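[job 4471] stage=fold_predict status=RUNNING
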Amino acid sequence: MVVKQRASNRIRLLEDPMKPIETRVKKLQNEGKRIISLVSGDPINAGGFTPPEHVVRSLVMAAQDKKNYGYSGYLPWGLELKRAIADRQKKDHGIFYPPDRIVLTYGGTNAIDLLYFSLFDPKDELLVPEPTYHLFVFLTQCYRTKFVTCRSDETNDWLPDIDDLRTKISEKTKCIILVNPNNPTGAVYNEKILREFVNIAGEHDLVIISDEIYDMTTFDGVKAISIASVAKDVPCIILNALTKSYLVPAFRQGFICFHDPEEKINELVEKTNTFASKMLPMSALIQKASIDVLKGPTEFRKDLLKKLEKRRDYAWKRLNEIDGLTCVKPKGSYFAFPKVDGIGRIWKSDKDFLLSLLEEEGIVLRLGSMFGEKYGVEHFRVSFLFPINTMREAYDKLESFMKRHVS
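[job 4471] inference complete, writing structure tokens
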């Protein structure tokens, strides 16, 4: 007998690879075991950072205006926010987006979901340098698209292998998806690599989707280049949010920018805008506050990046000092992606490695295979947002664990 009240086939396809680990974490915590997690990408609750005063003030002022408690569609903030985003993109990346080429979303993750909904049909092939942000992998299950990955070279700062990418293109390929700066590896793609992507997309009439949420979080003097700035006539869809650059994850204010000078994807832009206006009416309070945030000063980032770079340096050095681990130095984002000697030999999989580490030392890390089943399986993702004292305790435990099993 078919149970008519069951979940849809679409959502039943979704599986969370971290569920066994998270279930075990809860059980151990209930038993009183101390757990240290180095998973989070939340700069506030994980990193201990605080938004600058003008950011806090913007929300307070928006909350004091009673008209902002009504529906946002009756207020001018949506258009003004799009103009503020356009100004920000022009200032930071030299690209101008007309307001009707910008879509507001509930954070960066909702932007990705909206694009999957708007752009892809079942069996479309998405070409992605691996490792990549796990949500792109996760949503592929739901929308029944085919995830085709090319290699990124760990020995070359995790830069994508363009020759490998070319061999993966088929008549079903619809787009190339980039995460730059990259989560989980911390790679920042240089202009040469970006131009290669543009040339390939132009040759095969593909769209480029570029997740650039960490565009203002780079180290060692490296600058993140938006692919739209070198794309010329190739359509590019840029995903971003205020979350990382302005320390406001709670705002959930994301946006999609469509670079399409020859209007090749007009239908997609128009339909996505229409759907978003009907189904994603953003909070008037957050819209108004976000306008003021984007127009405010950005000097606070200098101190923020200085502190983050110090934490990045500590994590990278410490990880490479542990026998059995090697780690490429991240040039951007909040994350590193170390390789583990012994996965596939001592531990059957990265899941077995992390469960063993959790049981013995109470340390939680993110599965490498979540970010790519080919090139992520011998790795784990770790956040370096955390204060150095927290990381020191965790890495001491990780080192003890590796000595017992690998040395």
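[job 4471] summary: The two ends are 55 Å apart (CA to CA).
[job 4471] exit 0
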